[in-house]
Write a structure and sequence with these properties.
Layout lengths: L1 H36 L2 H12 L1 E5 L2 H11 L3 E5 L14 H6 L5 E4 L3 H13 L4 E4 L12 H5 L17 H18 L4 H26 L6 E4 L5 H6 L3 E4 L9 H13 L4 E4 L6 H10 L2 E4 L7 H16 L2
Parallel strand pairs: 1-2, 1-3, 3-4, 5-6, 5-7, 7-8
Helix pairs in contact: 3-7, 3-8, 7-8, 8-12, 10-11
Family: Belongs to the bacterial solute-binding protein 9 family.
GO biological process, one term: metal ion transport
InterPro entries: AdhesinB, Bact_metal-bind_prot9, Lipoprotein_PsaA-like, ZnuA-like
C-alpha cells in the first residue's frame, strides 16, 4: 500500500513538474511568438536605439514634427517640460549636459532660445543648430484693448507661436528635413518619403479645420494669453487676449473686455493651464459664462488643433 502511494505520489509530482514546465513555456511562448511573427520589428527597434540620431528641441510640438519626418531614425529630447511657462523657462544644468549627445538642436523662435542659445551652442560645439523658422514671416503680438488703454506703449513683439499654423508647420517641416539630411545624408530618401507623407497629413488637417470653422458667424474669441494669432489668421478668426507681454489687464481693460463679451454674446473664455486663470474666471463670472482650458503645447499636435477647432465651433455658435 505504501509502495502504491509512493508511486502515485511520484506520478503526481512528475505530472505537476511537467505542468510547471509547460506553464513556463506558455508564458514565454507568446512572447517568442510575437517576436517571431514580427521578427524584424524588435531588430529594427534595436537598430533604431543604436543608430538613431539624437535631436534636441525646445517644445513638445516640435518633437511631433521631428518624429514625423525622422521616424524610427531619430531620438528626440525636449527641453521645456509640459505644464511650464515657456516664456520664462530656464533649462536645468543636467539638460545642458544632455546636449553632449545631440547631433542637432532645432529652434522655433521662442524667448528662452534667444536668451540661452549661446550657452546651448557652447554645451556642444559640434551640434548643428537648425532654425525651423527660416522663411517664415512672423506677425506682431499687439492687442486691441491694450492699444486703447491710456499710458500704454505697444511693443511690437513678434509672435513666436508659429507651430499653431498648419501652413507654417509645412515650412518648419521642410527646414527640419533639410537639417536632418545635413547630419544624416544616408537616410535622405527615407526622410523625403516621411516629409511627403507629413505634408499630405497637414493638408488634410488644414482642410478639416477649415470645414469646421468656415460656417461660423461669430468669429471672435477671448483667450488669456495670445498664443493663437497664427491660427486665427489662417482661419479668418479674431483673437482677443486678456493679457499681453506677461501683463495682467488693468481694472479698466478688464471692464472693457467684460462689456465686449456681453455685447458680442461671448460665453466662453479660453485660458492656458500654464497661466493663472483668475482674470479669465472674473470675466466668465461677469458674463455668466465659463472658462475652458486649451494648450498650445500638447504632444499630439494634430489632435490638439482638431480639438481646439471643435471647441471653437461649439462655443462660437452657441
Amino acid at each position: 500500500m505504501k509502495i502504491r502511494v509512493s508511486v502515485y505520489a511520484q506520478m503526481v509530482m512528475l505530472l505537476w513538474g511537467m505542468s510547471v514546465i509547460s506553464g513556463c513555456n506558455t508564458v514565454s511562448t507568446p512572447k517568442n511568438s510575437v517576436e517571431n511573427n514580427s521578427a524584424e520589428a524588435p531588430q529594427t527597434a534595436t537598430e533604431t536605439a543604436d543608430n538613431a540620431v539624437d535631436i534636441t528641441v525646445s517644445i513638445m510640438p516640435q518633437k511631433y514634427f521631428v518624429e514625423k519626418i525622422g521616424g524610427k531614425n531619430v531620438r528626440v529630447n525636449v527641453m521645456v517640460p509640459p505644464g511650464v511657462d515657456l516664456h520664462n523657462y530656464e533649462p536645468k544644468p543636467q539638460q545642458l549636459q544632455s546636449l553632449n549627445d545631440a547631433k542637432a538642436y532645432i529652434t522655433t523662435g521662442i524667448a528662452f532660445e534667444t536668451a540661452w542659445i549661446d550657452r546651448i551652442k557652447s554645451a556642444n560645439q559640434k551640434m548643428l543648430v537648425i532654425d525651423s523658422t527660416q522663411g517664415i514671416e512672423r506677425i506682431p503680438m499687439v492687442e486691441h484693448h491694450h492699444e486703447e488703454a491710456e499710458n500704454y506703449q505697444a511693443e511690437e513683439t513678434l509672435d513666436p507661436h508659429i507651430w499653431l499654423s498648419p501652413k507654417l508647420v509645412k515650412v518648419q517641416a521642410q527646414n527640419i528635413y533639410d537639417g536632418l539630411v545635413k547630419i544624416d545624408p544616408e537616410r535622405q530618401v527615407e526622410y523625403q518619403s516621411n516629409l511627403n507623407q507629413f505634408i499630405t497629413e497637414i493638408d488634410q488637417l488644414d482642410q478639416q479645420i477649415s470645414q469646421k470653422l468656415a460656417p461660423l458667424k461669430n468669429r471672435k474669441f477671448i483667450i488669456f494669453h495670445p498664443a493663437w494669432g497664427y491660427f486665427a489668421k489662417d482661419y479668418n478668426l479674431e483673437q482677443e487676449s486678456i493679457e499681453v507681454g506677461g501683463q495682467e489687464p488693468s481694472a479698466t481693460e478688464l471692464a472693457n473686455l467684460i462689456s465686449q463679451a456681453k455685447q458680442e454674446n461671448i460665453k466662453v473664455i479660453f485660458a492656458q493651464p500654464e497661466f493663472n486663470p483668475s482674470s479669465a474666471e472674473t470675466i466668465a463670472k461677469e458674463i455668466g459664462g465659463k472658462v475652458i482650458f486649451v494648450s498650445d503645447l500638447e504632444a499630439n499636435w494634430s489632435n490638439n488643433l482638431l480639438q481646439v477647432s471643435d471647441l471653437l465651433s461649439q462655443t462660437l455658435n452657441p
